[in-house]
Amino acid sequence: MNKISIIAVCIGALAVTACSSDVKRTPGKIYMPDMAYSRAVETYSDPRELQAEGINYNARPVAGTVARGEEVIYKQPADTTGGYMASAALKNPLPLLNEVDSKEAERLYLINCGICHGTKLDGNGPLYKGGDGPFPAKPATLVGDPLYAAMAEGTMFYSITYGRNLMGPHASQLSPKQRWMVVHYIKAKQREASGESAPVAAEAAPAADSTAK
């Protein structure tokens, strides 16, 4: 029998063996069966049906857990007045801005706040324009008004996040980190106007992505 015949016989035998219904195939031993055969839970599954199958699922977060990116501390309460008052206890979690971050904070302020509060933080932005602008009510004077000079950092953050009076919320425009940077910038300008010495900032660092949470 020549080589071609031998190869043909081997291929034929292999094909017959592969197609045989008597061959039992198993995946072998599974190291972590609970992961290999996980019981997936759909978002809109009926908890009663799952519980009937022995799956404890009620579509609620685990007690004490926090969703990634959720601002639990700053969550708008039903009592908005109470939330505004309580926000005074919040402290700015960011360190004092170095030169690089101060430039970024100024940029964020000018883009998002300057149109109302003005480049000099005097409440005379393009929308008011000394009373000649399209906005009839003068925005808050952030520098020069004792009321805002005494405003707590947390209260500023709360106001930027949820809005206050005629000012709209900016949580969709600015990340939490960016809002705190703007608060730092406003406070720095207030200290500068009052002649108060500025606290020592951290050493200059490479520019960070201010969109990060």
From TrEMBL:
Ranges of residues in domain Cytochrome c: 100-190
PROSITE patterns, A to Z: CYTC, PROKAR_LIPOPROTEIN
InterPro entries registered for this protein in UniProt: Cyt_c-like_dom, Cyt_c-like_dom_sf
Lineage top rank: taxon: Bacteria
Keyword Protease among record annotations: no
Sequence ranges of Low complexity compositional bias: 195-213
Pfam family, any one: Cytochrome_CBB3
Protein's UniProt keywords contain Nucleus: no
Protein's name according to its UniProt entry: Quinol:cytochrome C oxidoreductase
